[in-house]
């Protein structure tokens, strides 16, 4: 077998580590507890041990400093503690939203098959004017994606049994005429139709063990920032034999296209055409993975925080009907309106007694607990603690490490395949114009957990996932992996019956060995998002750099002018090149013809003072009007708050500088 190691070096004040020891076992990384006053530089030494199973292409030694290394793709292993990133990073302490515990709580009574609302006696004893408290609860009912209705507030004393028609409640308590308490509780109520579906398919299974799927996603966290900002969580994953996919590369700019590739198998163009997110009922018609699992006997759930920027709602129509059996959005809509709280870096933070992210995590945990003995598919996503900078998510490190352990303690990991992942790294801000920030934005983290019964039944999956750690992989592959999981249940004839990933014919399940010879072109990653190249710096004000940047600006103006048949062009001022920030030229890979050069350009435009990043292919053999190809979309590296309010289309908002501010 092959054993190879590499080191990540960083300043001692960044990581709570004192000593790091290496165990030559599978994928495991050990970190000892840290003395916060340590002055030595910590070294993070990952050792990967791979069997040379003849059924799998034998791994080749990985050169130091690379995550993926082949003639077609070489992805650099970044130092998480490089100064260009650390000068913008500061560890943030977790702070509880309330100093006192909540007055009320809920629990599920399995005998009655109902949730029970209780007043906590200890909290009541410490409450002001507790002897005069009068409490009631009102049910939250979904009216639409952007509205809820409330049932009449029903009085209760020490407790109440909740109806199964209620998905969530808001509790209010008054003392005389003053409201002294308000809180919310989402539930996973028993539903007759869901129970019938589960029992029908369980009968067909004839005792066969069927894995559940739990997906826990966090917006805007690169693999490297997971290590930097959440070392305890990362440590936990390495220590407990989760499978890391270190070469996981995003396929497009922001959350929506990367999630659509994962959940539907579509790129942005296909998703816009077939899922019509701008039209009512468009997304309802789209064949999401949760629909596929639901059709094959699974109970489904979806929860996401930050209502205004939800993946399927930000500048989109969302869902006409609830997309899953248990849908958290109505509760969080009510909670944001009713419970009060605060915001951090422009994102909702505390909502009542917990952060909004904790509302999502708790809901996911309760969903998994409620359906522990059934087959479930849950998709849960948080934005609030990670969207705006590289530091804020560090406040959730201890919480998330403990959360993963709580899933173990309640037995979820025994029956579930768990996917812990992100969509991309941080997309804007001061780190983004650095080399590290450029790569981090394109390389989100991905870890997969296989329960023991799957590992024993399919040791080849374990072998493949260990091998695939250092292969180029994509959200399309993850899409096909989940279809592969469904095909294992015996509830479908074969994986082929489930279809592939429409926009990546060469993508595949990660439970099978991924070819080392993959290139970005093979797997639907355009040049602009590809991390497989090395770049050399070019003088930023060189003739070629400025000429190419001017042509990219012209491309942006033409794009805005022609978008939706020119119907929005009158809203935006034309842009011009203001200055160059940086320019780079790619080292060609074996597949690249010598007459084509790839440039990475970073430049400012006027009048909006926007900082853009573009990747272009320059063909020296073609005439000027044909020799430039802008690949992928052009990235906006700084914020555009307030200057594009006249534009309600997320596709071109980042290129628009409104002629009339304020809409």
Automatic annotation (TrEMBL):
One GO CC annotation, please?
extracellular space
SUPFAM superfamilies named in the record: Alkaline phosphatase-like (SSF53649)
Spell out the PANTHER family in the cross-references: DUF229 DOMAIN CONTAINING PROTEIN-RELATED, FI08016P-RELATED
Q: What is this protein called?
A: Uncharacterized protein LOC111601557
Species this chain originates from: Drosophila hydei
